[in-house]
Design goal:
The chain is of the alpha/beta class and about 550 residues long. It has helices at about 45-50, 75-85, 95-110, 135-140, 160-165, 200-205, 215-230, 250, 255-260, 280-290, 330-340, 355-370, 390-395, 405-425, 430-435, 455-460, 480-495; strands at about 10-15, 20, 30, 30-35, 40-45, 55-60, 65-70, 70-75, 115-120, 145-150, 155-160, 180, 190-195, 230-235, 265-270, 300-305, 345-350, 380, 400-405, 440, 510-515, 530-535, 540-545.
Length: about 550
C-alpha cells in the first residue's frame, strides 16, 4: 500500500474505481481514503479498508475515473458570478437557429425592465450555419424587450429596444477604439464593432440593468455550482472589473458573503487589477493597503493582475490588426512593477502578442537589475503568439505563463489575417514546457471563452477549433495526461499552492472529481461534454450528480 498518514479512521473512502493520482509515476489505483480534509491513503480496495471506521462514508465508484480537482488559472469568476443570473448562454449550442430560440424564450418570459443578453463564450464557428446572427434576426426576437448579444471581444448586436434603452442615437459619439455602425441617415443600426478595443462592447453591457447585492450572492452561488458540476475545485480570479460600476473590493462582496456563510465551494485566489489609466501605481498602492482577505484557504488575495498598465493591454480580436502599444508604456508600467517587487506582491500581465510581451519584459528586466525579483512569482497571461526566444526571457526571470483555449474560438480569423505559417506556431505550449517555464491551464471564461475546462482540454489535446480547423501539428498537441497536469499541479503554481494541490498523494488536499466518463479514453468529440458526478473540496462533497444525485 502507498504511504498511509498516521490516522485511525478515514472520513471518506472511494473504492472500486480508477484513481489517477498524477504523482510523478502516474500511479493509478482503485481506492482513495480521506481524513481531516487531506488524502490519507491511496491503494487498492483491500488496503484502504484498513482505515474503515464506524463513521466512515464509503462511495463505490463502479469503475469510474477519479482525477485531482481541476484548477482554472485564469477565470473572471467575480464578473461572471455577479451577472450569471442575467445571462443567456450560447456555450456549446450547435446551431444559430437553436441559439435564437433561446433568446426568444427568455424574451417571452422577461419582466418589465429586464433585458435578454448573451455575453460571450460562443463563436460563429460552432454553429451548423457557420455565421453570425444578422441584425434582422436579433430584432425579430422582440420589439419591446432589449436584446444584447456580445460576440467575444469583436462585436455586439442590439435590437432597437436596446438602442432606445441605452439612449444611442445619431448624436452618440463613437468611443475610442470602437465603432457604432450607422445607416445612411447617421442612426445607429445596432451593430457595435471593436476596432480593436472592446470598450465599445463593455459600455453597452454597462448600460444594462444590474443585479442588487443580495441577488449577486445567489447569482454567484449558481455560477460556482456550475464550476463544481464540471469538477473545478480551484480558481484564480484574473481580475474583477464589474465594468466600472462598483469599486474593485465591492466586486468581491458576494464571494466574501458566501465564504462567511460557509457556502463557498471553490477555492478562490483573487488577483486585483488596476482600473484607472495613467494612475495605476497610486490606485494599486491605495487599494492593496486596504485589502484584507486573511489567510483563508478558500478565499485569499493572490496578487495583482492582469491589468498592470492599462494602455499596454492588447486584444485577442483577430478580426482587426494588432494594436500598437503607446511609446510611453514604460513610463506608466515601470513604477507599478517597482511597487509590486518592492512589496513582494505576485503579479501577472495580459499579453496576447509576442510584441506586447517583449515590451513588458524590457521593463521587468530593468526593474530586476535594481530590485531583484529573487523568486517572486509572476506570469504572462495568454501569450498566443509568444516566440521561443521570448519564452527563454520569461524563464530567465522566473516567470510562468497561463494558457487558455481562446484560439478555439478565433482560429479561423487568426488564420485569415496572419496566414498558415503564423497559425502553425500559435500558442506553443509544448515549447513552453520544454524550456522549463511553469504553465497553468485556464479558460478566460466567461466573456472571451466559456468556463468549461473540458472544452479547454479538448483544445490542448487536439489543437482544433470549434469549427473543426486543425491548427496544431500532431507533435505540438499535448497528450491527455500532460494536458490534465496543466489544470492541476500546473495551475497550483500560480496560486503558490503547488505543495498542497494538484496530485492525489497522501498529505495533499482532498480536492478531486469523479467523472461521468473516462477522460483518458473518451472520443475527442465527446471530451467537452465531460462533467463531474461527485466533486469533493477539502474532503467535503460539494456536488453530486448522475448516480450520486439521489443520495
Amino acid at each position: 500500500m502507498s504511504d498511509i498518514t498516521v490516522i485511525r479512521h478515514a472520513d471518506l473512502i472511494l473504492r472500486g474505481g480508477r484513481v489517477h493520482t498524477l504523482d510523478a509515476a502516474d500511479t493509478v489505483v482503485s481506492s482513495l481514503a480521506v481524513a481531516d480534509g487531506v488524502v490519507a491513503a491511496v491503494g487498492d480496495d483491500r488496503e484502504t479498508a484498513a482505515l474503515l471506521g464506524p463513521d466512515t462514508e464509503v462511495r463505490d465508484l463502479e469503475g469510474r475515473t477519479v482525477v485531482p480537482g481541476l484548477h482554472d488559472s485564469h477565470l473572471h469568476l467575480a464578473d461572471a458570478g455577479n451577472s450569471w443570473n442575467l445571462q443567456v448562454r450560447w456555450d456549446g449550442v450547435p446551431s444559430l437557429a437553436d441559439a435564437l430560440r433561446l433568446l426568444a424564450v427568455r424574451a417571452a418570459e422577461a419582466a418589465p425592465g429586464q433585458w435578454v443578453r448573451v455575453v460571450g463564450g460562443w463563436s460563429d464557428s460552432q454553429f451548423a450555419e457557420h455565421r453570425l446572427p444578422t441584425l434582422a434576426e436579433i430584432e425579430s426576437v422582440s420589439a419591446d424587450v432589449p436584446v444584447l448579444v456580445v460576440f467575444l471581444d469583436t462585436a455586439a448586436f442590439l435590437n432597437r429596444a436596446a438602442l432606445r434603452a441605452l439612449g444611442y442615437d445619431k448624436s452618440t459619439p463613437d468611443p475610442p477604439g470602437g465603432e457604432i455602425q450607422r445607416d445612411a441617415s447617421g442612426n445607429p443600426t445596432g451593430l457595435l464593432i471593436a476596432r480593436p478595443s472592446p470598450a465599445v462592447l463593455a459600455l453597452a453591457i454597462l448600460g444594462a440593468p444590474r443585479l442588487a447585492p443580495d441577488e449577486r450572492v445567489n447569482s454567484t452561488r449558481r455560477f460556482l455550482g456550475e464550476l463544481s458540476r464540471r469538477g473545478v475545485t480551484g480558481v484564480i480570479d484574473a481580475g474583477a472589473t464589474d465594468f466600472g460600476v462598483s469599486s474593485v473590493p465591492d466586486c468581491y462582496d458576494a464571494l466574501r458573503t458566501l465564504r462567511a456563510q460557509n457556502r463557498l465551494c471553490v477555492r478562490t485566489a483573487l488577483n486585483v487589477s488596476a482600473s484607472r489609466p495613467g494612475e495605476e501605481r497610486e490606485e494599486l498602492a491605495t487599494l492593496l493597503r486596504g485589502l484584507n482577505f486573511g489567510g483563508d484557504d478558500m478565499l485569499w488575495f493572490n496578487g495583482v493582475g492582469e491589468g498592470l498598465a492599462l494602455d499596454g493591454m492588447d486584444s485577442s480580436n483577430f478580426a482587426e490588426p494588432r494594436p500598437e502599444l503607446p511609446g510611453e508604456l514604460g513610463r506608466h508600467l515601470e513604477p507599478v512593477v517597482r511597487l509590486l517587487v518592492e512589496n513582494r506582491w505576485p503579479f501577472t500581465f495580459h499579453a496576447t502578442f509576442d510584441e506586447t510581451i517583449v515590451r513588458f519584459l524590457g521593463v521587468l528586466e530593468t526593474v530586476n537589475r535594481d530590485v531583484p525579483f529573487d523568486g517572486l512569482r509572476w506570469a504572462v497571461e495568454h501569450a498566443e503568439t509568444i516566440r521561443p526566444e521570448t519564452i527563454d526571457r520569461v524563464a530567465a526571470l522566473g516567470g510562468g505563463i497561463t494558457v487558455q483555449h481562446r484560439m478555439a474560438y478565433r482560429g479561423e480569423r487568426f488564420l485569415k489575417r496572419y496566414g498558415p505559417e503564423a497559425a502553425r506556431h500559435v500558442q506553443p505550449v509544448m515549447e513552453m514546457l520544454t524550456r522549463g517555464v511553469p504553465v497553468g491551464g485556464g479558460t478566460d471564461g466567461t466573456w472571451l471563452a466559456d468556463a468549461n475546462p473540458w472544452g479547454a482540454l479538448r483544445w490542448f489535446t487536439t489543437g482544433t477549433t470549434l469549427g473543426g480547423l486543425e491548427m496544431w501539428r500532431p507533435e505540438d498537441r499535448l497528450d491527455r495526461t500532460l494536458a490534465l497536469r496543466l489544470f492541476t499541479e500546473g495551475s497550483a503554481w500560480f496560486a503558490g499552492d503547488q505543495r498542497r494541490r494538484g496530485t492525489l498523494e497522501p498529505g495533499m488536499l482532498a480536492d478531486f472529481a469523479v467523472l461521468s466518463g473516462d477522460y483518458f479514453s473518451v472520443p475527442e468529440a465527446e471530451m467537452a461534454d465531460l462533467e463531474s458526478v461527485l466533486t469533493v473540496v477539502g474532503g467535503k462533497v460539494v456536488y453530486e450528480g448522475g448516480p450520486f444525485a439521489a443520495r
